[in-house]
Structures are given as C-alpha cells and as structure tokens.
Amino acid sequence: MVRVLASDGMDKAAVKALEDAGYEVVQQFYDAEELKEKVKEFDVLVVRSATKVREPVIDAAAEAGRLKLIIRGGVGMDNIDVQYARDKGITVTNTPAASSASVAELAIAHMFALSRFLYISNVTMREGKWEKKAYKGVELAGKTLGVIGIGRIGREVAKRADALGMKVIYNDIFGAMEGLPYEFTDLDTLLKESDYVTLHVPAPADGSALLDAEKIAEMKDGAYLINAARGALVDSAALCDALDSGKLAGAAVDVFNEEPCKDERLLHHPKISMTPHIGASTKEAQKRIGEETVEIIRKMFG
Description:
- Helices cover 38% and strands 17% of the residues.
- It is an alpha/beta fold and 302 residues long.
- Strands 8-7-6-9-10-11-12 form a 7-stranded parallel β-sheet, sandwiched between helices.
- Helix 1 packs parallel to helix 12 (283-301).
C-alpha cells in the first residue's frame, strides 16, 4: 500500500479521496529529527510551510529508498531543498495555481485595512475609544501599486488592483512579461514611485533581506508595504524604524522569520496590520490544494 505523510495536514475531502483509492494517509507533524526517521516509512510526503525538508531529511529518505514524491501544498518551495532532493531521485512539485487567488485577496484586504485603519480602529473602539479624527484614511483608486514578482500571485493582485482603479507597475527577476497590461520597471524606480508595494517573490537564497534599510529608504515617503510572501524578504527592524520615523505610513505582514512570531516590536507596532500566515487559508484554496495534491499522487502511483 502506498503511504502518504501529510505533515502539515490536508483537506478532509482530499484525504477521503486518497483513502477511497486505496492509499493510507497519515496526518502528523514531526520536527526535523523525528522526520528523518519517519520519512523512511512513506512513499509520499506532503507539506505546507511549517515542515522544513532539508538535506538531512532527504538523505535519510534516499538511504531508505522508499520516498518517491514530495509535494508542497502551495506555491513557494523554499522550505524544501528542491534540487538536492531531485538529485537523489525524489520528485518534488507544488500546487502553484491552487492558492494564488486567496493570497492575492489577502494582500488586497490588507491594503484596505491599512488605508482605512480597519486593523486598529476595530481594537480601539473595543477599548471604549472614539478616535474618528485620528482615522482619516486614503483611497486606493488613483494610487500606484508596485508589484515585486509578477508570477501567479502577483498577477492576481495586479488584476484586482487594476479593477480598483490603481495604476500597476511591476518588477520581476525574469524581466518584462509579454502580454501584461502593466508597466515593467526596475526595482529602484518601483520603490520610488509606488504608493503601495506588495511582495510576491521567494526569499533570497543567501538569507539577505530584499528590502533592507537602504532599500526601504528608497521608497516613496508615506508609502505602504505589504508582505504576504516570505518573512525573510524584509528587515523587520528597518521596517519598524521606517514606521516610527514616518517614512512609511503603514505595513501589512502575514509572514515572519520565525513562526509563531515572537518579535515584540512587530507584534505591538501600531502601524502594522498583521495576520498569522493565512494567505492560503480559505476553504476554496484548501479544497483546490487538496484536489491538485490527489491528482499529482494518482498520476504518479496510479
């Protein structure tokens, strides 16, 4: 029997579909040391963002010789040493289309939350405060959105922003994309011209922040930054400094260097709209991720 380890959980319908097809599905999270041993007992490993599949785990799996497939339920695969696994004969894939719309909608939601103080006024009103004069917001229509990374998620964000009347400009490591109705520009120009900047790229391989203090200083005064991609993309201390100085008007953060987040400065900053890595956490996205995962497994194992 083909055994599937869903270390970060799986949609109930997907589990049922696999079990009805004769697969065994185990839903259990293991830390790195435990995973090195447990992975030897499975043919398929399905992860989300919590489980890290690094070289020691891959070595253990390759030595045992059973694991044939690793699936990342979602888009980014930087929590997996992808090429290393492939070099060991293990297929690695993801479900890139399944959660794009959900992440894009969260990014747009954060833009609204920041622009109209929804994230903080909801709190202060529950504290008995009526701070109407403090919450004079701004409209999204007519503003410039800079999209860093125009892949599946970035395009979904751009499409929604365009419908809201925003001007969309973008930067991408692969250059200008044919057929897109948005303006391509270099990163420095994007930072200088954008009222809102949203990130949709993997974390740099060397561990450095894409937006460090120097890059944040290049941003337009009073701009907003949205990060629903990877926590490592932004230097959190530099971000808080920019918010404190007024360089940036606000920021939205869904992803963190350490999860759960323990950065007290981030957690309690009054200019940050914050969510606990829920970009793909919609019923629809989880259903699509599950369906695509089942399809990948069945194509490989029959």
